[in-house]
Write a structure and sequence with these properties.
mainly beta; 7-stranded mixed sheet; 2 helices; single chain; Metal Binding Protein, Guanine Nucleotide Exchange Factor, Chain A; about 140 residues; 3-stranded antiparallel sheet; binds zinc ion
Length: about 140
């Protein structure tokens, strides 16, 4: 099922299928170098209110990408799917592009805007926050 807050999603090959519940019908765009290298572009992400429920997870693999975060992907088709704090699995973020019906989600803001390269730009007027501003908000120190 899909309403604005409950979303089904999955990877390219179907070896990962999940459902998440969002706290708000919005997404962020992360421009950090790790997200861009991992997902082949800026990472558009929704934040799940709690862990995902999986109907299929045999392809799901977690990669520890930094001291405090890990990324979930499908080991069969390579789809980039999830980001979470390693010690707080309730902080799950999921790729907007993995969702079956993301059309009604609205852009909240851009994060890691200071890591965005000059070769692309987004035309929206939503807020843009730097790594330092985001780290301060989350109470984390940079990796
Ligand atoms: Zn897959
Ligand atoms: Zn990122």
């Amino acid at each position: 099922m899909s309403d604005t807050l409950t979303h089904d999603g999955g990877c390219l090959c179907g070896a990962v299928r999940f459902q998440i519940r969002l706290s708000t019908p919005t997404f962020n765009i992360c421009h950090c170098g790790m997200c861009r290298r991992w997902s082949a572009g800026p990472f558009l992400a929704v934040h799940s209110d709690g862990p995902a429920r999986f109907s299929r997870d045999e392809g799901l693999t977690w990669y520890r990408s930094s001291r405090w975060a890990e990324r979930g992907f499908c080991s069969r088709c390579g789809a980039s799917l999830f980001w979470r704090l390693a010690n707080r699995p309730d902080t799950l973020a999921a790729s907007v592009e993995a969702l079956d019906a993301p059309e009604r989600l609205a852009l909240d803001r851009h994060i890691y805007i200071d890591a965005k390269p000059d070769r692309y730009d987004f035309a929206d007027a939503r807020p843009r926050v730097t790594e330092a501003e985001l780290m301060a908000e989350l109470g984390l120190s940079a990796p």
